Amino acid sequence: MRHLLLAFLLVQALFSFSQEIKSPSEFLGYRLGTQFTHYHQVVDYYRYLSQVASERVQLQEYGKTYEQRPLFIALVTSAKNMQHLEEIRQEHLPESKKNALAKNDSNAIVWLSYNVHGNESSGTEASMQTIYELLVHKSSYLDNTVVIIDPCLNPDGRERYVNWYYQFRNIPNTLDPNSKEHHEGWLS
Question: Between 174 and which of 60, 90, 148, 170 could a Cys-Cys bridge form, CB atoms 3.0 to 4.6 Å apart?
Answer without folding.
Answer: 170
